[in-house]
Amino acid sequence: MGSAKKSKTVKPTSLERVAAILMELRKAYPDVVCALNHKNAWELTVATILSAQCTDVRVNLVTPALFKAFPTPKAMAAASLPELEELVRTTGFFRNKAKNIQGAARVVVENFGGKVPQTMEEILTLPGVARKTGNVVLGSFYGIAVGVVVDTHVLRLSKRLELTKHTQPIPVERDLVKILPQDRWIQFSHELIHHGRAICVARKPRCVDCTLEYLCNAADKTWSSH
What is the mean pLDDT of residues 100-127? Predict the structure, then answer.
């Protein structure tokens, strides 16, 4: 671990410290993948839209019936809106989400030949799709690293680890892409999301079990080695 252990004397965003954080995350979560179940880019797009202010577990319970009823963008574009609303009701904000996934389906069919586009500029033309969803689909399905997914866990842990001072997703993403190697943008998000769910939980972080603890100076740590 070397001098990176002296986290209080090292600049939080130094190459040395960032490299140590990335090393520990990769060792802890070597095979972690996107938690949203999907078979193709369209399913991942829909699942990510539905995941707004909803758990991935809940989304994964909802999507099998949704995709069985409407398996393609063309089918979803032609669906009855009340039927879509009923299928996604338990994800919250179901009327708006149903409207968005149907709108996204229509744009995919009419403008992109039924296939989810592979550029951020194009994918942002889909209703209900902002940068987070764009980064999820482009990164997790297409393997295209154009940015960093900033969900609630990445937002919270990036600030906690002093990788950013910002509290809004877009400024946080800007900070992260400056300090992270591009070939780690996609996996970093998966790792940090998993870490936020399993170890660095918001209400009571499990610091004694955290492999990043020696690098962390958060004021509310539940256990500290330094």
Answer: 98
Contact predicate 46/63, CB 8 Å: yes
Give the residue carrying structure tokens 């149903």.
Answer: 98
CA distance 156 to 195: 11
Q: Which one from 56, 97, 151, 175 is the annotated catalytic residue?
A: 151
- Asked about 175 being catalytic, the answer comes back as no
pTM value is 0.93
CATH at 92: 1.10.340.30
Contact 116, 107 (CB under 8 A): no
User: Could you report the per-residue pLDDT of 74-96, keeping only the tens digit for each?
Assistant: 999 999 999 999 999 999 999 99
Residue 137 burial class via C-beta count within 10 angstroms: exposed 0-12, middle 13-18, buried 19 and up: buried
36 domain-assigned: no
The secondary structure of residue 7, as a DSSP letter, is T
How far is it, in rounded angstroms, from Cα 51 to Cα 29?
Answer: 22
Of 115, 132, 159, 204, the active-site residue reads 132
From residue 24, alpha-carbon distances to 2, 66, 112, 143, 179 in Å are 13, 38, 40, 22, 16
Contact criterion met (CB below 8 Å) for 187 and 26: yes
Give the pLDDT band (50/70/90) at residue 1.
very low
Residue at which a domain ends, from 141, 168, 186: 141
**Whole-angstrom distance, CA of residue 149 vs CA of residue 134:** 8
Q: Is 209 a catalytic residue?
A: no
pLDDT (average), residues 114-139: 98
